[in-house]
Each structure stands twice: as C-alpha cells, then as structure tokens.
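Design a sequence for this backbone.
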C-alpha cells in the first residue's frame, strides 16, 4: 500500500530590499506570527501540505491515520473513503476543495478523492495519488495505469508515459512534475517540455508552477539528497537558488506564489520528517535572497519551534509546513505581521536573480507513501 504524506513539501512573504550594496546591509522583511496547527490536531506528529489564499490549510498526521481541513481557527477531520482506514491530503484550491487519497485493507490500492463542503467523494481514477488541484477543479497526479494524469470536467486524461508523475499545476492548466527519465517537465497546450538539469546534474524534478509559468523544484547529481533548489522561467532556464549554509548537502524548493516568492528547505539530514529538528531548516527565497525562516519568526510567537520544512505559500504571503517542537513534529502556519530591518543573509553559494520526483509512488522529496 502507498499513502501520500507530503506535498511536501514548499514560496514566502513579501520582502523589500532596502540596500544590497554591502554584505552587512539591511533588508526590510516581514516578520511572521506562528500558529501551531499540530497542537490543534491532537496528533503527536503532523504536517501541513498546502494552503489557499483564504488561509485554509490541508493537514495530515504523520502516521496516515487522520487528515484535517483548517479554516479560521477551527479544524475539521477529513474522513477516508468508505472501507478505507488511512488517509492523506495533498492540495487545496481557493474554493476550499481538497484532494488526497485513502487506503484500506483491500486490493484497490490508492483511492483518490475530492473533499468539499465536508464531504469526501471518490475520483474516477484507479490506484492513483492526486497531488494538486487548481481553482478550475482540475487535478493532477500519478496513476498506476494512466501514469501522469490531468483530471478535468469529470474525465482523467493521461499526459505522459508510465513512470512520469505530475506534482503541480496552475490556473491555466499548465502542469509540472518529473519524467520517467528523471528530469523535470512542463506540460502546456498539449506539449511536454523537458526542463533538463542544473549544470553537472543527472536528475531534476519540478514541484510547483505559478500563473506566470515560473517553476520550482530540485536538481541533483543523483537525486534529492544532493539536490539544489531551482527556479525556472522560459527566458532564463533553470537557476540555482543555493543552500542556506555552506555545509548543507541539499536544498529543495516546494512551492511558489504568483509574486515569485519561493519556499522550501535546506539541510544535511535526509530524514525529511525528523522530529528533533536537527539538520533541516525551512527557507524563503524572495528578492534574489535566500532566508532562513527561523530568523523571521516574531519574538514571543510560539517559542521553541524549529521550522524544518516549508511546503507552500499563498498569494498573501502565508506559509505552511512542519517544524520540530518538544520532540514532536507539528504542522505550522506563518502569517506576516510587520516589517523590520535585519542583517542580510550571507552564503558561500551565489544566489542568482530570477525572472518574472523520481518515479510514481517513489520517495521524491522523501514523501513517505507506505502505510
């Protein structure tokens, strides 16, 4: 059995550059209030996979037993499909619709569903995991028989070969993911474009795409464990976003909003769901600068949290993901509250300016799928 536990994993707040003339210059950036969504679930370990522009959030327990819909301070449990006992949710749109899949003690495999207005309904796709949904209620993902699929107007259409997976889409119906040749792709107007890799790499995967066609993902020599976060535009190609620290072994970009702000994580610990918080730091990329989100939490806001992974960012700058607190892994929500001057981050890896995983059911971005 497989059960998605991520969408995984990631986009950020409005940051305004004041001065970029010296390494010790200051930037005006938004500080964030932190809401511990995990404490609301009652689960020891949880994570947030996606957020819409209303601040509604899709949340999972780490063991696959429960999923939740968060809205305006309240939490609703999302039930699996009848006969199933485990559930995972991946994407949410601005209509408050959530996609995910559930599994049970049967031979049907992954059973995809759409959750809306408190009701969980099956999608007509066999043994599939949906990863994203747009505001047109189009859904993309991967299926054992269709390969990468685009579900629209009640019909699921294969948009590639088996082994290819679709991970994200925008409101124009443009789709991104990873080809079975282990390289990122963009699908639009019926055509698939191989995005290639960063120089010297052999692998890449795309996680998300905004309405301007900007794409984020990771590119590595062998995979995600040595990958580097990238931002792609049609005019500039793939651009390396760097890593937070010179000692980091990888960085991954998980999400992007329509302002071009990117979120993800960087680190050394290849257990991407580590509850101790060691070796992983959530990041924000904005205005050509990579920030550690832990440095942007407002004083007194949920102290003790280590933000390990940022999964998604909405167009209002709110960010969701997961973090370590008191030996547990909790879903979090960051909301921008103010702007202050802070020291400009430094890195031994150049940050390039930007313009305007694996195979189906495999462990891209370390999404644990096994139930």
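Sequence:
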């Amino acid at each position: 059995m497989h059960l998605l536990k991520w969408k995984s994993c990631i986009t950020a707040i409005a940051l305004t550059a004041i001065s970029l003339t010296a390494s010790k210059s200051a930037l005006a950036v938004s500080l964030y209030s932190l809401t511990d969504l995990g404490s609301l679930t009652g689960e020891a370990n949880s994570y947030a996979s996606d957020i819409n522009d209303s601040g509604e959030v899709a949340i999972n327990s780490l063991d696959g037993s429960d999923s939740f819909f968060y809205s305006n301070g309240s939490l609703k449990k999302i039930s699996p499909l009848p006969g199933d006992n485990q559930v995972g949710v991946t994407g949410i749109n601005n209509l408050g619709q959530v996609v995910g899949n559930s599994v049970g003690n049967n031979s049907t495999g992954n059973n995809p569903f759409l959750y809306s207005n408190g009701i969980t309904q099956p999608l007509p796709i066999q043994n599939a995991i949906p990863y994203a949904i747009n505001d047109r209620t189009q859904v993309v993902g991967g299926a054992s028989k269709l390969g990468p699929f685009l579900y629209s107007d009640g019909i699921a259409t294969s948009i590639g070969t088996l082994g290819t997976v679709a991970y994200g889409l925008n409101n124009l119906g443009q789709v991104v993911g990873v080809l079975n040749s282990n390289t990122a792709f963009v699908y639009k107007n019926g055509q698939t474009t191989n995005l290639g890799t960063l120089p010297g790499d052999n692998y890449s995967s795309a996680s998300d795409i905004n309405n301007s066609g900007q794409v984020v993902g990771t590119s590595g020599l062998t995979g995600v464990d040595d990958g580097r976060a990238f931002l792609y535009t049609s005019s500039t190609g793939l651009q390396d976003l760097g890593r937070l620290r010179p000692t980091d072994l990888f960085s991954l970009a998980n999400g992007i909003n329509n302002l071009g702000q990117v979120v993800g994580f960087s680190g050394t610990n290849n257990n991407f769901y580590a509850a101790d918080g060691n070796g992983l730091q959530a990041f924000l990329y904005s205005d050509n600068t990579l920030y550690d989100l832990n440095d942007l939490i407002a004083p007194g806001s949920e102290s003790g949290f280590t933000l390990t992974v940022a999964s998604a960012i909405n167009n209002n700058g709110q960010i969701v993901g997961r973090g370590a607190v008191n030996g547990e892994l909790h879903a979090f929500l960051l909301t921008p509250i103010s702007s202050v001057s802070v020291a400009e981050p430094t890195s031994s890896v150049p940050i390039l300016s930007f313009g305007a995983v694996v195979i189906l059911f495999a462990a891209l971005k370390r999404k644990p799928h096994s139930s």
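The chain is about 0% helix and 50% strand.
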